[in-house]
Amino acid sequence: QRERDEFPTLKDFRGLQFKSKDSTIYMNFRFRMQNRLGAYTVDGDNLGIREFDARVRRLRMRVDGYLYSPKFSYTIQLAYTRSDQDFDDTGVANIVRDAVVFYNFTPNFYVAFGLNKLPGNRQRVNSSGQLQFADRSIVNAAMNIDRDFGIKAYYKNNIGTAVYHLKAAITTGEGRVANNTDKGLAYTGRAEILPLGAFTKDGDYSEGDLMREETPKLSMGGGLSKNFETTRSGGQIGYYLYAPVDLTTYFADAIFKYSGWAYQFEYIKRTVDNALTYNDEGDVKYAFNGQGINQQVSYLFKNNYEIAGRYSWLEPGESIQSFQQETEIVELGVTKYLHEHRIKLQLNANYQTKQGVFALDNKGNRWGGVFQVELGI
Amino acid sequence: QRERDEFPTLKDFRGLQFKSKDSTIYMNFRFRMQNRLGAYTVDGDNLGIREFDARVRRLRMRVDGYLYSPKFSYTIQLAYTRSDQDFDDTGVANIVRDAVVFYNFTPNFYVAFGLNKLPGNRQRVNSSGQLQFADRSIVNAAMNIDRDFGIKAYYKNNIGTAVYHLKAAITTGEGRVANNTDKGLAYTGRAEILPLGAFTKDGDYSEGDLMREETPKLSMGGGLSKNFETTRSGGQIGYYLYAPVDLTTYFADAIFKYSGWAYQFEYIKRTVDNALTYNDEGDVKYAFNGQGINQQVSYLFKNNYEIAGRYSWLEPGESIQSFQQETEIVELGVTKYLHEHRIKLQLNANYQTKQGVFALDNKGNRWGGVFQVELGI
Amino acid sequence: QRERDEFPTLKDFRGLQFKSKDSTIYMNFRFRMQNRLGAYTVDGDNLGIREFDARVRRLRMRVDGYLYSPKFSYTIQLAYTRSDQDFDDTGVANIVRDAVVFYNFTPNFYVAFGLNKLPGNRQRVNSSGQLQFADRSIVNAAMNIDRDFGIKAYYKNNIGTAVYHLKAAITTGEGRVANNTDKGLAYTGRAEILPLGAFTKDGDYSEGDLMREETPKLSMGGGLSKNFETTRSGGQIGYYLYAPVDLTTYFADAIFKYSGWAYQFEYIKRTVDNALTYNDEGDVKYAFNGQGINQQVSYLFKNNYEIAGRYSWLEPGESIQSFQQETEIVELGVTKYLHEHRIKLQLNANYQTKQGVFALDNKGNRWGGVFQVELGI
């Protein structure tokens, strides 16, 4: 089993494995480092550098396995870098990303209790170590439902060769930082169907067709999440609002792979009741609402160079259009996979436009580029 | 040796052990996760939910062992969750819980230098992984002396079949967060006697009679700690006061186990010189003083279900009675030990009263419940 | 290879090593703990204690090794204590100290990408686990260039028996805390020559002659670093200034070892354009500039006791002499190496003077002492 961040990797362990002599303790240790050098231009027709994005983007340690019986599995993941800790939004160094225990009733039905990713949009559930661009899309950034503490249930089965997954969660709705929460919880459901059968090595949650599927493979998914009385601008993530709001997020996505080609599609829409919140001085803080589409297509050459293209479109809802503009990004990526997704070199270039105007002199347009090295086990 | 947080577990190692080829490095790795879902009612007769307590309560990594010679042993423990870091009181993410080196003159006499638990009240010195309720008592919460940096000495010996322990410490008195300190240090001493001999597998520092002692076992202990010129409301813990105070804490406790039954008792009393501190605007911050008793009784069934009852009483001192009320809690706990204290499911329900009035409509009374899963090695 | 913090220790691994069955993953795990008890007097002729320095000074975990091919090596180092995280200057718990990947073109030429130490003054590049006093000198504290994110290149070669090293770096200039940076980067270069050949086990980056060199060994080095538009008082470290400044730092150093004797010398000079920065209220924050010299001499006895002396002199630049005074420190150290630098007991005593006046009654003069235990693998 490959990495997807909802689950521990119980089969086909990667990394370093430790087992106690009596086999009651099984632990798999991994780490992942992403070092990045990026730059953004001043605007579309002034190619001077406005800002560098140069840092250890991610440095994570992950331990998963089972204890005393394969029925009790667990995943722990720690994040050590500032931007991986929601620090700038919350003021708290949230080191813990995953801390969850699974009870496996059967190989096809298990329940989780703890902190891990919600079954939201596909690109978010994808591990950041399985991406083909250095970052996820702006659509994901604006509307994903991230991680949350609570109870989750997972079920999968077959109909002939087709595979389907059902996932549901009841969680606090306030994300990683919360110690306690009000009565307003979050409710999430998601279904997936793989009409052409399972992907090789869980490739439905890994970008790019690194397995070079010999027959076409397709996964289609969709779901929704309702988050009641959340105090944060993105529900589980984002800055604190002046008043609680109710969010509803809808997502539909698909991934197709065949013979080195991969195509993925993602649509997310979010509605918010009373998205604008005010304090006593009349200052405003808003919860993002709107909709967006992300599409990516890629081909992996025999030498393990991949070329990928991406087009993302994000439209803010009417109530917040005085704060946010419609944004599009066109991006080109070249990735050299030295050891699948574990060691890779990524070079991305993109052009971002505002208000649907692609002209270089349009206000807010800009060029960007990033070089990223990923190293992990 | 079982876990008690003053010591490394040099014998009967649990967890994953690593040894260098030349046997000069010996390291034992463990982790522990506690995931919790709790709720409190609005008050005693309105059973609506006021607040959920839903989170990764603890996530810790622990490394202990010896280096180059069993005479040099060490314990390191790291805490990754917000509520385990004293963050909300200090603004600092105090990741380090234990970082201490021991020099073992003899197996019965050793000296510690570094950060670890003070030899205070028994329930506090108990590891949080050895508790039979999800939380320690309110008496412990209000007056325990926690961890501190300094020098500690431990001595144990026998008188016939009886065993006794003597422990002493000189420490900074400001707890885990301190980088440096004023002249006012903390001085702690504690003695214990086990008239019926040692508990099976160090059970005097583990709650519940999981070993089902075949003969009665008893430990009685007591001690005191003087903390001079501390700047924090609880000495080593708590928020910062406006002025330093001197604290004295007295503790007496006992634990008895036999044939699946366990009973424990704990009395703590704290006095503070000038407990109320003021800033220039006349705002007040106070150091807790008062006294309290905690008692727990439990029986472990053959199927490793345990039923436990607890009664705690906490009375604030006269000088702070305008800020804090007398509080009592009656609590019932059912615990399923799947692998002793390492994997357990805990379900607790409690009723909290104020001012000694048990009537449901008394102001401040409330019901609470918590379900907790503990998973560790 | 011994530890120097620019590099992973690929040869002569210490610590615990893990290797995957197929030898594609090689990982070396180490940790290091420094516990300290220090005290400073009120002044030169009042030996009352003004302040204790009692804490876990450092607690670090380090993982290094290579992945899939010895050409891809890496170093990760995490710091868990408050004072090791730049917390008090930045408000951020900077846990990551090193996170860097190396591409080894040849054994003599390699390039690093990520966060690690800059090739600055020798005492700083020295690991804190290879020092003979509990702290580095005041000269280093005031003007070292610490760690920074970016690209670094390292080359070494021989001329006959002489060895030389060339090192260069382009980095963000804002240190560990930075997520992104302006156009002003930092440029660093350094050269070293070892005319008498390589030290035993990389002893040129380890203090004290623990290897008891059988023939005299000498390393001389020098370099400079220009840091443009940095926002911090020390470039990569220090508090935030009110306006960006340009720093230039020059360093020259040498170390000599022979038969248990070691002598080291370090000169650092820093110039700053417009060192004083102001906010709108006219408050001032300044970037340190000035110069200083540190010298240390030591002898290691046969029983692995070392006696060491140190003299440090630090002179602030003219523009900041209303804020900082000329400072000298004379220090004596006795160290017992129980297992080389891995387990050692250190006892240091020092006398600090201000304005070049050694009289006990001079304002600002004081005595200090520290006892430190280091334990690591």
Give an overview of the whole structure:
The structure is a homotrimer of 377-residue chains. Chain A is mostly beta strands and 377 residues long. Chain A has three helices and 19 strands. Chain A is 4% helix and 57% strand. In chain A, the strands form two sheets. In chain A, strands 2-3-4-5-6-7-8-9-10-11-12-15-16-17-18-19 form a 16-stranded antiparallel beta barrel. The first copy, chain A, has a two-stranded antiparallel ribbon with strand order 13-14. In chain A, strand 15 and strand 16 (305-316) form a beta hairpin. The relative contact order of chain A is 0.14. The interface between A and B is medium-sized, with 35 and 29 residues.
Count of individual helical segments of chain A? 3
Strand percentage of chain A: over 45%
What CATH first level of chain A would be assigned? Mainly Beta
The CATH topology annotation of chain A reads as: Porin
- The end-to-end distance of chain A, rounded to whole angstroms, is 14 Å
Give the helix/strand class of chain A. mainly beta
Strand order of the largest sheet of chain A: 2-3-4-5-6-7-8-9-10-11-12-15-16-17-18-19
As an assembly, this protein is homotrimer
What is the helix fraction of residues of chain A, given as a range?
under 10%
| H/E series of chain A | EEEEHEEHHEEEEEEEEEEEEE
Largest interface: A-C, 30 and 35 residues
- Radius of gyration of chain A, in Å, reads 21 Å
Total number of β-strand segments of chain A? 19
Name of the CATH architecture of chain A = Beta Barrel
Low-confidence blocks of residues of chain A: none
